[in-house]
Amino acid sequence: MSKRITRVNELLRREISEQMRRYYRSDAAAITISEVDTSPDLRSCRIYYSVLGDEAAIAESRALFNKIGKDLHQRVIKTISFKFFPRFEFIYDPSLERGAEILNLLDELDKENG
Fold this sequence. Notes:
Strand content: 15-25%
Largest sheet: 3 strands, mixed
Shape: globular
Oligomer: single chain
Order of helices and strands: HEEHEH
């Protein structure tokens, strides 16, 4: 991945997180933008998010992104200018949940051995 795309990804991740915090704080409190993956031609962008909670919370977050996706896109366009602005696609990322499960297992093993 080029340095330019890496910088674009980080810029978009920070700005999307900031817009969600500023305008959708009550609805998006349990949502974390974990990664942004922009295509090299800057036409599309996958936004990976994690959610604290159960399957219902994940379904709510998916519905929230379906509801606010276009508005969030417009807010980010107003603050960042590119020649071509990528289309957003929101994808649930279970990696933080898996990481927490692994940490819990390691803690349990540590307690059993210690």
